[in-house]
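In response to reviewer comment 3 from the previous cycle, which asked for concrete evidence that the modeling workflow produces usable outputs, we include below a single protein chain processed end to end. The sequence was submitted unchanged, and the resulting structure tokens are shown without manual editing.
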Amino acid sequence: MKKVWKVCIDPGHGGYDPGAVGITGTQEKDVCLKVTKKIKKLLETHVDIETTRKTDEYLTLNERSQFANTINADLFLSIHCNSATNNLAAGIETFVINNADNNTKKLADMVQTQLINETKATNRGVKEANFAVLRETTMPAILVEIGFLSNLEEENKLKNDEYINKISESIVKSILTYLDIDSNIDSNSTFLNKKNTNITSDQLKKWAKNNNATETFINNADIYYVLCHDIDIDVTFAYAQYAYETGFGKYGGVVDESFCNPCGLKINAGGDCKDPNAHQKFQNWKEGIMAHIDHIALYVGLENYPKTDTLDPRHFPYLLGLGATVDSICQSWCPSNPNYGKRIKEMMEEIATININNTIYNNQKTLKKILINNEIKEVECVMINNHNYVKLRDLESAKIKIDYQNDMPVILCF
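The workflow returned the following structure tokens.
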């Protein structure tokens, strides 16, 4: 029988111990937990993975090492952020116990090399230290310092989801290589918490038309594009799931277009799939699509989720972080259908291959000066077909009136 490897990941600090605190207030304990959750999501289909903590709780160093020993882990990896009095200190370094064995050194070298290759951070190398979690564990154990929170540039990187993805993926690739496990970790498409800037709304529409979608489905592409870019969710996944769940807007089950429900979301209390009253009715498509995207963002585990002001009727806190990747979210969303994730990934690939000619599009973000309640403010805009879309998070209220004064857009919130 093929061996099932057991891996223990240890997010440093926690609870009343924040660890290092960055110049803008980023806490080490939060970064470590975020990286650990992403590592777990990527590794759990390949190995038996456990983490010393899953929430913001305090554990002693002895509790961490004893946990790894008790579960008889095959390797132990502790995640930390660095800090120094010199705010120019930068880079990534990996620690092993003094006089470590060859297996431990091999693991450390693999992780350090992969991290530097992927992040292009300063290489501070593999070093020895008498850290308790390295000394008291009984398996190959390493501690990785993924960057300096005392360095403003590195702190900002460690707040960026795409950079955190690189860190997580690099560690996962290294572990799988060390354990000699075949894998296909695609750093360009693994995680859903990043906007796909290579995709345009016109591509979404053309793909929909190629599949004989309804006019409503086609027109909703613009809403998906703007809202997904606003909160940094991959629009190809959201739109593909909308297509799968509704048959490109044609529906056919107990839910129809009048529900403005793009993904079959049920009411808070749930109910039978064959009961139309068990499914949420939204007032309009923007509300339904926003609820869909909030539901995805909750599964992905984005910052500021769960939300208190969401239209998602099933915005349950326990769903947070259960689906950071296409595979994991589809498995969580529809565990009874093994082809669910496969088909959605196929749809995402179809969208990516759509070519648009002579389209009027600029997917670059621009900054525009607008007047909001008598105050000139510079806000980020996304241009689609020569129209500037302002992100709602830059406005004080969703209830707005737009006027012009001397060719400057004036936004009145009330």
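The mean pLDDT is 86. We consider this sufficient to address the reviewer's concern, and the full set will be provided in the supplementary archive.
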